[in-house]
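Reviewers of the previous submission asked for a worked example of the structure-prediction workflow described in the proposal, so we include one complete record here. The input consisted solely of the amino acid sequence. No template or homolog information was supplied to the procedure at any stage.
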Amino acid sequence: MMWKEKYKIGVEHIDKQHEELFRRVSEFTKVIRSEEDWDARVDKVKETMIFMKDYVIDHFNEEEIYQEQINYPDIETHREAHAKFREGINNYVKIFEEEGFTEEKIQEFGGKLMAWLIMHVGNMDQKIGEYVRSKGGKV
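From that input alone, the workflow returned the following structure tokens.
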């Protein structure tokens, strides 16, 4: 899962954050699909969950503040998508705490992260860039 230039929305600090998200999720998926020992894989899951809980909150907050500043018309839909993702992360935290780490749940979590990141950055966030460009890049 690689960052692609086509994912850029044209807002430098958001694009850098997106690149970091892609890098981290890519690193994560490599480890969980590898033949590394179980403890190393579980450690990577824990590390990724901590990162996602913290970084995504910061990123979402910054992205939403930016949308407010530019009067982005679809901000509420975007906020809802962010809230669902945060809820999803928290659900996996709870699952792992209550049920432990299983191969099935680790792979499921990895798949959800990849799918969400591609769909959100590659589709929903692109609309922010389109809006900015429709305003001449100066909003």
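The two ends are 32 Å apart (CA to CA). We consider this example representative of the routine output the project will generate in years two and three.
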